[in-house]
Amino acid sequence: MTATTSRASAQRPRPAMKWWGWGEESVEFTHEDKPALAPFLRDALGVDVTSAGVSAPPFERLQVPEPDLPDALRAALERAADVSTSAHDRVAHARGKSLRDLVRQRRGELGRLPDAVVRPADEAGVEAVVRAVLEADAVLIPFGGGSSISGSLEPPAGESRPVVSLDLSRLASVLDIDPVSRLARVQAGALGPDLERQLGERGWTLGHFPDSFTHSTLGGWIATRSSGMQSDRYGDIAELTRAVRVVTPAGVLATRPVPATSTGPSVREMVLGSEGRLGVITEATVHVRRLPAERIILGYLFPGWDEALTAMRDIAASEASPSVTRVSDAYETRFSFVTRKDPTVLDRLKSAALKTYLSRRRGFDVGEMCLSFIGYEGTERHVAAQRKLTGKIVSRHGGVCIGASPGELYDQKKFDTPYIRDFLLDRGTLADVSETAAPWSALKPLYDAVMAAAREAFAELRVQGYIMCHLSHSYHAGACLYFTFAFEPRPGGEPLDQYTRVKSAIQQAFVDNGATLSHHHAVGTEHAEWLEQDLSAPGTAMLRALFDGVDPGRNLNPGKIV
Ligand SMILES: Cc1cc2nc3c(=O)[nH]c(=O)nc-3n(C[C@H](O)[C@H](O)[C@H](O)COP(=O)(O)OP(=O)(O)OC[C@H]3O[C@@H](n4cnc5c(N)ncnc54)[C@H](O)[C@@H]3O)c2cc1C
Known about the structure:
Layout: H1 37-45, H2 71-80, E1 82-84, H3 87-92, H4 99-107, E2 116-119, H5 123-135, E3 139-143, E4 163-167, E5 174-178, E6 183-187, H6 192-200, E7 204-205, H7 218-224, H8 231-234, H9 237-240, E8 241-248, E9 251-254, H10 267-271, E10 280-287, E11 289-290, E12 294-302, H11 305-317, E13 324-328, H12 330-338, H13 345-361, E14 370-378, H14 380-396, E15 400-403, H15 405-413, H16 419-426, E16 430-439, H17 440-461, E17 465-474, E18 478-487, H18 495-512, H19 531-535, H20 537-550
Helix pairs in contact: 2-5, 11-14, 17-18
The structure holds flavin-adenine dinucleotide.
């Protein structure tokens, strides 16, 4: 296998994530410092996680096909960008991090790999790459952090044209901050931590913190309509993005960073969620805010899911404006408690005292209680007023504040949580997520329908499964529900078929119950089959016409969304 890298980089390319899993090679999740986790997983899933796991075969054992890059295309790409045809680069850029991606990567079923990974240094380089790809009738797939969970990065299986993955890691700078308008121009390849560091040095924040923050980029967030933990305060990326620059087949599309406009259907909105099908986003102008003077996340417990949902709805309808409103159902609450690190004697005493107080004095059934995190940001006065207002609503629904330490713990471990899926997969257990949004009035029936659909699928497969849920974002008219499910596949059957049975049951329950197929994970290929039920046939026809009109040769990330 040959590895070639031409043209010296202006900025050093950053390494992609593990080719077989989430995050960095050196980081792993472990149950060893969480004494309650292994017994919980044995009860809930019937799996023993104390044995050593197996993650992936050594890279050298993979059968990596040679790239097929015509000489003329290679030469044109080399004039435009760093070009790599190394086996590792091509494998690491072939897919994202959906469960299906990880299972197949670990099996060595690599699928249709890109023939080259290119890393242009600037927008002119991106334009030259796009031109070269179109002239050669090749396929171009923009690659941000590679954290897609919806199959948005994989080339179509039978693609016979050369495939080029365009890695934006060298476009990672904050270019300019307009402090008067509170807008920043940022290059699309900036990863979450790079972006926040550059803004933070000047006292600003974007306030966009998805769980994948450490390994996802501004361009990827825009191309998938991402949402972050603090989006209740700052807005989802769709609201944060004021303007975009996109290299399209017709040239550079540039929208103006105006606060509002009446110029027909929104072109900016068309780019949001376009998953690389309209071109390569090189830059965006985004809202930024001053770093808050105070920031706190408080923990609350509710006696049950109904009370918790109603409290979140009332908070959204009130004058309170918390930065985070998150509440877990009883199943996820149990899971949160068992992932706590080795508690001290004092912690144990406190938690026993709290349980006694809740059950004896407040009438809680501790098996049904729901853990919530509500975050506040701003000046000291603002935070104090918000806490007071929210506290009253929580009490009205039977909830109790349990202080700042559970919130601090959650805040610290949130970016480690994605590693759990690999830990389970190493031990043969499949775990994944499905998330949606629906109006407040539809949330409870939706939740019941999803839980029933998943359990029916588990029963049909004759597997012991677990499903849990949290409400992750609140809006004026409704909220996002985020489901996590896991099971050990039945021996003898194809694990991915069994996974598809459960995942499809959940997705179908979404669209059958007035909800959307995804609130923030995009469509890709994983969710495409539900798009027409979500948008109606004329809606999907409109999207198809848009993609065909902009990219008649289907050279840009074909096969995604529709
Ligand atoms: C463990 C885990 C946790 C996650 N948590 C969250 C979460 O909390 N919130 C959330 O919103 N999502 C979450 N996701 C999903 C994922 O992180 C988001 O979809 C993210 O926005 C993708 O960004 P990326 O830079 O990794 O894009 P990639 O995965 O590289 O690409 C995603 C899509 O966008 C396109 N694209 C990327 N960059 C560009 C560009 N510059 N121009 C045009 N198209 C481009 C790609 O072609 C592809 O179609 C999570 C995923 C995982 C695996």
